[in-house]
Amino acid sequence: MGYIKSAALEETGYVVLDSYHQEVDPQEWLDIEYVDWKSSGDTRFAPLASAKGEIECNGFWNHKPPRTDKDGVWIDAQVVKAPNLTRRAQEPGANVGRCRVIELQPTPYGECLYNLHQDDNNRLNPDGTGWVVRGFFNLTDDKDSFFVLRENRTDPQGEVRIALPAGAQLIIDTQRLWHATTHLGTEPRYNLITSWTSGPELDAYIEKHHGQSHTASVAVDQAILDAGYAEQARKDAARAAYYAAKGQAEVRAMSEA
């Protein structure tokens, strides 16, 4: 039967939406409660919606009963502090699973490449239903930072680097694309991440905000790119050696973040 997917994401796996006027929002992301939850890099997360409405970030399949990343329960104590962020996550009208703000500490390009991962959005998702993708709304003004997308984790061919000023809005099939962020600021980067179920509601939202499946890639000096490739290879080799020394096969599983 196959999953219901957004045609707008079919070609490249992502769309860039119209920029949001971020300055009109109060800095709600500084008031909500964060938990230590490691994803790709030095991170914390502040959940707005979770499996049972509790302040935690676990995959919905790790709860009882286990289920896919849909029908998230809004956390009253967080929503009251972040009504605008909640409104933005709900605006498409698509089903929301997990919704949270990520806090990312500065991360150079080579570290970003090592952190590239795919998300396990659709575990337990029944065939014939909507495919779960993720929205990314950049909250802080990170003009020198960029999102990295690859079809193949270790192959830079076709790598896309998307700029992250305040108000940047992306929707990404993060189970298809390897992704992570190069954050070159001195302060933490904050970003709202929402799991949405594909379907007519999300399609209409993408159309309303003029979703583009191609964008100009952020220009990076070739010496920095080459150094990043070398750092990724070095860290990958060190990781493989670590597991080999323990007599274990290296497993790079999908992220639950």
From TrEMBL:
Domain of life: Bacteria
Name of this protein: Uncharacterized protein
Species of origin: Microbacterium kribbense
